[in-house]
Amino acid sequence: MLYKVNEIGIVVGYKCNFNCSHCVTSKYKPYRLTLKEIQLLISEINKHNLKSILFVGGEPTLYIRDINKIISKLNNLERKKIKITTNGHFAIDINSTKKILKSFLYLNAVQLSYDKFHSRFLPFKNIRILYNVCNELGIDFSVILTIDSPLDIYIAKKLSKIGKFEIGIQKVLPLGKAKKNKISYLYPTFDKNVLKKFCPSLGKIKYLCGQGFSICCSALVYNASVEGTVHPTIEEHLNSHFYKMISSFRLSEIAKKLKVSLNELSPQHSSECLLCEYIFKNNKIIN
Amino acid sequence: MKVNDKAIVAFLVSLGLFSTIQAKQYIKNLSTKEKKIILSVVNAKNKQILLCNGVTDLATVETKKRS
Questions:
Q1: At a CB cut-off of 8 Å and minimum separation 6, what does A256 contact?
Q2: DSSP label of A35
Q3: In whole angstroms, what is the distance from residue A88 CA to residue A91 CA?
Q4: CA B6, CA B27: separation in Å to the nearest integer?
Q5: ipTM confidence score
Q6: Per-domain residue ranges for chain A?
Q7: What does the pLDDT read at residue A3?
Q8: Which CATH superfamily is domain A7-280 in?
Q9: Predicted pLDDT of residue B46
Q10: Best mutation site among A171, A172, A223 for testing chain B: the one with the most B CBs within 10 Å?
Q11: Residue A272 has pLDDT above 90, yes or no
C-alpha cells in the first residue's frame, strides 16, 4: 500500500545555540538551505499539496528569514498547518518571545523540545512564558519530551503543572551525538512484535538541507547513510525502490526480501528505526 | 505481582514505552523509590501524555493518542 504524503519536515539548517548530549546531529554541518533548495521546497510543497509543514533544525528560529521565504510562496496557506520544533531559547521574557513568534509570517503550532538534556540550557520558568505567549497569540503549544529511561516521565508531571497542553514522549535513539555519548533508550529484552511493524514515518517526508528528500528521519539517514534512501525530489523518492519497499512491507517482510537474517537481534532492535537500520545497512538499494 | 507493579506495567505499555513482557522485566530491577516516581505520574492520571511516533526529530504529538 502506498501512503499519501501529507506532512513534510524540513531541516532548515544544523546551527543550534544549545549543545545537548543526546542530539541526533553528531557535529555541526555548515549546510543551510540555498536559494535553489528554497525554490525546490516551495514547488514540491505546492505540487504535492502538503498540508502540514514542520520546520526543524538545528534550531529553526535561527533561520526565520529562510522559513519565511518558503511560507510566503505557499498556496492555500490558511488551510495548512505550519509548525516548528524549537529549543525555546528565545523565551526569556514575554516581549522577546512575542517578537520571535510574530516574526514568522504564519505559524500554527510550536513544539518545544524539552527534557533533562535541554534543562541544562532552558530554565523551567521560560517554558511557562512560551506557553502563555503561544496561548495569547493563538498558537498551539506542545512539548516533545525525549527520554532515555521511563523514569524520566516525572518531567511530564512537572510540565503538566504549567498548563493544559500535550506532551509527546520520544525515546532517545543512538544517533549522532547520542551515539557518540552512548545515550540511548534501553530495552530489557527484544520485543518480537517490532517485526510486524511498518515504518513509523508513513505519510510523512523529510527534507534534509544539503541532501534531499527521504521518508527516513532516523537511523538510516543519520547513521547508516544507505545509498538510495535520499532523493532530489518527492516524486523520485516516492517512485524509488526503497520507498516502495518501506511503504508496502512490514520490517520482517523487508528483511526476508533482502535476505537479511534476523537470528541475532539484540534488545535495542525493539526500536523500529534501529531494526530498519540493521536490515538495510548492508544492502545497497539501487534504483 | 503487586497491584502497584501491575499499574506501572499497564502505564508503561499504554505509553508504548515497552511491551508487556519488557515492562514486567523492567520493573523487576526497579527500586522502591524508582517505582514511586513512576507511580506518582500514573496516579496523576495525566491524559496529556501521548506517545510520539517513535521517529527522531519529526516527532509530532498528534500521531498516536493514548486510549
A1: none
A2: H
A3: 6
A4: 10
A5: 0.86
A6: 7-280
A7: 67
A8: Aldolase class I (3.20.20.70)
A9: 62
A10: A171
A11: yes
